[in-house]
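Thread title: Can someone regenerate the structure for this chain?

I was given the following input by a collaborator and told the matching C-alpha coordinates would be attached. They weren't. Posting the sequence so someone can regenerate them.
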Amino acid sequence: MSDPSPPKSPEEEQVEALSLSGAVIDKAVEFLVGKEIDPCLIASALLGGALSLLIQHMSDDGILRVLDNAKTSVLSGELRVQ
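Best answer:
Regenerated them for you:
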Protein backbone atom coordinates (compact mmCIF):
# COMPACT_ATOMS: atom_id res chain seq x y z
CA MET A 1 0.00 0.00 0.00
CA SER A 2 1.39 3.43 -0.90
CA ASP A 3 1.70 6.38 1.43
CA PRO A 4 -1.03 8.98 1.05
CA SER A 5 0.13 12.10 -0.73
CA PRO A 6 1.00 15.06 1.48
CA PRO A 7 -1.73 17.64 2.00
CA LYS A 8 -1.81 20.43 -0.55
CA SER A 9 -1.10 24.01 0.38
CA PRO A 10 -3.92 26.56 -0.02
CA GLU A 11 -2.02 27.99 -2.99
CA GLU A 12 -1.81 24.57 -4.67
CA GLU A 13 -5.53 24.05 -4.08
CA GLN A 14 -6.28 27.46 -5.63
CA VAL A 15 -4.14 26.70 -8.67
CA GLU A 16 -5.94 23.38 -9.17
CA ALA A 17 -9.36 25.02 -8.73
CA LEU A 18 -8.46 27.79 -11.18
CA SER A 19 -7.17 25.26 -13.70
CA LEU A 20 -10.34 23.18 -13.43
CA SER A 21 -12.55 26.26 -13.68
CA GLY A 22 -10.68 27.46 -16.75
CA ALA A 23 -10.95 24.07 -18.43
CA VAL A 24 -14.71 23.92 -17.82
CA ILE A 25 -15.19 27.46 -19.17
CA ASP A 26 -13.04 26.66 -22.23
CA LYS A 27 -15.21 23.60 -22.99
CA ALA A 28 -18.42 25.61 -22.53
CA VAL A 29 -17.16 28.33 -24.89
CA GLU A 30 -16.07 25.69 -27.41
CA PHE A 31 -19.54 24.11 -27.24
CA LEU A 32 -21.33 27.45 -27.72
CA VAL A 33 -19.08 28.47 -30.62
CA GLY A 34 -19.86 25.07 -32.17
CA LYS A 35 -23.55 25.99 -31.92
CA GLU A 36 -22.66 29.08 -34.00
CA ILE A 37 -23.55 31.53 -31.25
CA ASP A 38 -22.00 34.96 -31.78
CA PRO A 39 -18.74 35.08 -29.79
CA CYS A 40 -19.61 38.59 -28.54
CA LEU A 41 -22.84 37.22 -27.06
CA ILE A 42 -20.94 34.39 -25.39
CA ALA A 43 -18.40 36.82 -23.96
CA SER A 44 -21.15 39.15 -22.75
CA ALA A 45 -22.91 36.29 -20.97
CA LEU A 46 -19.64 35.15 -19.37
CA LEU A 47 -18.84 38.68 -18.22
CA GLY A 48 -22.33 39.12 -16.78
CA GLY A 49 -22.08 35.81 -14.96
CA ALA A 50 -18.63 36.67 -13.64
CA LEU A 51 -19.80 40.04 -12.35
CA SER A 52 -22.80 38.44 -10.66
CA LEU A 53 -20.50 35.98 -8.92
CA LEU A 54 -18.05 38.71 -7.89
CA ILE A 55 -20.87 40.83 -6.46
CA GLN A 56 -21.78 37.96 -4.15
CA HIS A 57 -18.23 37.47 -2.87
CA MET A 58 -16.33 40.77 -3.12
CA SER A 59 -16.72 44.34 -2.02
CA ASP A 60 -17.49 47.00 -4.60
CA ASP A 61 -13.92 48.30 -4.22
CA GLY A 62 -12.55 44.82 -4.92
CA ILE A 63 -14.67 44.50 -8.05
CA LEU A 64 -13.53 47.92 -9.23
CA ARG A 65 -9.89 46.85 -8.76
CA VAL A 66 -10.53 43.75 -10.89
CA LEU A 67 -12.15 45.89 -13.57
CA ASP A 68 -9.33 48.45 -13.41
CA ASN A 69 -6.81 45.64 -13.93
CA ALA A 70 -8.81 44.42 -16.92
CA LYS A 71 -8.96 47.94 -18.34
CA THR A 72 -5.19 48.33 -17.93
CA SER A 73 -4.63 45.01 -19.72
CA VAL A 74 -6.83 46.10 -22.64
CA LEU A 75 -5.20 49.52 -22.96
CA SER A 76 -1.68 48.06 -22.84
CA GLY A 77 -2.49 45.56 -25.58
CA GLU A 78 -1.65 42.69 -23.23
CA LEU A 79 -4.79 40.79 -24.22
CA ARG A 80 -4.22 41.02 -27.97
CA VAL A 81 -2.69 38.03 -29.72
CA GLN A 82 0.24 39.22 -31.82
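The two ends are 51 Å apart (CA to CA).
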